Amino acid sequence: MADFTKFPDLALRTHGGAVIAANDESFAEREALIRPGSPAFRTHTFGPKGQVYDGWETRRRRAPGYDWAIIRLGLPGVIRGVVIDTAWFKGNYPPYASVEACAAEGHLAPVELTDWVEIVPKTPLDGDAVHELEVSNPRRFTHVRLNIFPDGGVARLRVHGEVVPDPRFLTGLTVDLAALQNGASVVACSNDFYSTPTNVIAPGLSRNQSEGWETARRRDGGNDWLIVRLPAPGRVAIAELDTTNLLFNAPGWASISATDSRAELPPPTAKWFPLLPKTRLQPDTPHRFRLDSTRKITHARLDIYPDGGLARLRLLGTLTEKAERDLTTRYTALTRTPQPRNRP
Hints:
CATH class of the largest domain: Mainly Beta
EC number: 3.5.3.4
Shape: globular
Number of strands: 21
Organism: Acrocarpospora phusangensis
CATH topology of the largest domain: Jelly Rolls
CATH superfamily of the largest domain: Galactose-binding domain-like
Order of helices and strands: EEEEEEEEEEEEEEEEEEEEEH
Low-confidence stretches: none
Strand content: 35-45%
CATH architecture of the largest domain: Sandwich
Number of helices: 1
Oligomer: single chain
Helix content: under 10%
Pathway: Nitrogen metabolism; (S)-allantoin degradation; (S)-ureidoglycolate from allantoate (aminidohydrolase route): step 1/1
Radius of gyration: 22 Å
GO molecular function: allantoicase activity
Structural class: mainly beta
Largest sheet: 8 strands, antiparallel
Number of domains: 2
Mean pLDDT: 94
């Protein structure tokens, strides 16, 4: 597995992504490209359009050209790599694909998107295979366009990268400093046996247990934990711990501590102080706590006792004035220099 896959999928449907246009979807719908989970397949399941595929599939092209689909990223940011998965497409996969990206201001229609930049050149594909393709462009993007040559089917497109929030929606406001869409990230975790800890800071509410974080059962007398890096230093006023959908595997208790560290992952010598003392939790329940601390923090550590799962963690607060300036400077640097390559 490529190193870039440690970053969240910026295009995932449950992260707010959407396939907003495609020139053709005759055999299988474009929306499947960004569905969560692995592609499924059942043999001899034929519908009016032929074998049913869990992916995007276009008709056989009888004229020059290529097919394409445009995805609006739910989490705009710097793209570190893409995964083109042709799972189950064995005799009908595209032999080549490329990926372009653009940065759009506001809420534009597909035909209004311009200044496309090639981030993955035309690359050979195999059938029923996962293709991990690194991206080196350092700019912040809001949309990607998958081009397949000349036609065929792709099961999934994953767009892994670093979330870069628009500081205009963070400065001077009370916001969720632990939210993935605001640039927070999980930098360490004791156990991710059943599901990734990044789920706990994902947008929206979890619809079932798989969309939260759940650990294996502990037998050693310890407890599980994760560490969230805030998008920038801030002060947290309210903590929300949501155990929705966790009926018989919610933690019995939880606590939150914090530190102020310049490192992405605080060193073992970091000094942690309490934000929320060890507190009893209930199954299938959203919990809200008003916090007394006004100290600046960069990381929060959630401890659950002894194990179990959590649907969501929210830390509502404000950024420091310096953090607001630093986020604005970084955002400007990542959006300043376009490198257009328009495709008719």
